[in-house]
Specification:
The chain is α+β, with helices and mostly antiparallel strands and 319 residues long. It has two domains: 84 residues, Phosphorylase Kinase, domain 1 (2-Layer Sandwich); 173 residues, Transferase(Phosphotransferase), domain 1, CATH 1.10.510.10. 33% of the residues lie in helices and 19% in strands. It is built from eight helices and nine strands. Strands 1-2-3-5-4 form a five-stranded antiparallel beta sheet. It is globular and about 55 Å long.
């Protein structure tokens, strides 16, 4: 990309590198901002694979979008070669930082349901292309303002750990028997490390629970204690404050038999989630309320003049 680059700020770092917000100015004077993921040579293959997956998923609204079809090469502040992946910038940050803006990190009920639906829509896309994300967690979900700026949209990001369905990661082993971040992993991850679509659904259950409680699943457990709980078919506890339909949804995601979790597309029809028809009705009600409010405002500002028209005498037809 032929343009001048200006680092605006540091956004964060992870297992495969660091991310900066960068302003790119083109030769014609136009500019845009991008979140630039930087990885060193030892992590080139992972970043290249992430780019490949993002290019396959380009255009899907629940997947973070990348710019370009190849990695860029540059130098770090210390003169080391880095490879760069340009991504759309989420000004609201990750879901984890977004939750910090709310009391006790608990999100509003309607927002939880909307976000859950959006994640599932993204999973339908990912699974439909033969991939398992393998690392669904608040850090890897990005929050964007919606087009009307009255709500938010969620997109799935960070495909560095993603695998093809049935694949086993090279790092899986007895000492670390987890495919992704361990507190979001299902029991079967401990057994053989095979990436199946149902793995992401267990992680989704953890996410929904965390959005309700504000607490990280399995908080305080070390790796051995967590492995022991999972091997005994335990799941994170669902408190009584969680609504009945949400509890049913989470329990479905936490099914001990992976096949009983269903699929992402099947979960989209669960009664916990708002249906498209319901959303359209809510938007219609909102438009009606806004129209009614405008009507009230007009009547307060300028009273209507009434004109009295004398009524005509009734006319009866002779039979």
């Amino acid at each position: 990309m032929q343009s001048n680059e200006e680092i605006v700020k540091f956004l964060g770092e992870g297992a495969y590198g660091f991310v900066n917000l960068v302003k790119f100015t083109k030769g014609d004077g136009s500019s845009f901002q991008a979140a630039v993921k930087n990885s060193y040579a030892e992590d080139f293959d992972s970043l290249q694979k992430e780019l490949q997956i993002l290019c396959e998923l380009k255009g899907y609204p629940r997947i973070v979008q990348c710019f370009g079809e190849s990695l860029e090469e540059g130098l770090s502040a210390y003169g080391n070669i880095v490879y760069k992946l340009l991504l759309e910038y989420a000004c609201e940050g990750s879901l984890r930082s977004f939750m910090d803006n709310y009391s006790d990190r608990k999100l509003p009920e309607t927002m939880i349901r909307d976000f859950t639906r959006m994640i599932l829509e993204g999973l339908v896309c990912i699974h439909g292309h033969g991939y398992v994300h393998c690392d669904l967690k608040p850090d890897n979900l990005l929050v964007f303002p919606s087009r009307d700026s009255s709500s938010y949209e969620l997109k799935i990001s960070d495909f560095g750990n993603s695998l093809e369905v049935g694949e086993i990661p090279h790092y899986w082993g007895v000492r670390f028997p987890f495919v992704g971040t361990r507190i979001y992993m299902p029991p079967e991850s401990l057994i053989d490390g095979v990436a199946e679509k149902t793995l992401d659904l267990w992680s989704l259950g953890c996410l929904v629970l965390e959005m309700y409680t504000g607490e990280i699943p399995w908080l305080g457990l070390d790796i051995d204690d967590l492995a022991s709980r999972l091997l005994y078919d335990e799941a994170p506890e669902i408190p009584e404050c969680v609504p009945c339909d949400a509890r049913e949804f989470i329990e479905k995601c936490f099914s001990r038999k992976p096949e009983e979790r269903g699929s992402a597309s099947e979960l989209l029809s669960h009664r916990f989630l708002p249906r498209e028809e319901d959303e359209k009705m809510e938007k219609l009600k909102l438009r009606i309320r806004r129209a009614s409010k405008k009507s009230e405002d007009v009547s307060e500002k300028k009273p209507l003049k009434s004109k009295i028209v004398p009524s005509k005498a009734p006319y009866f037809k002779k039979v």
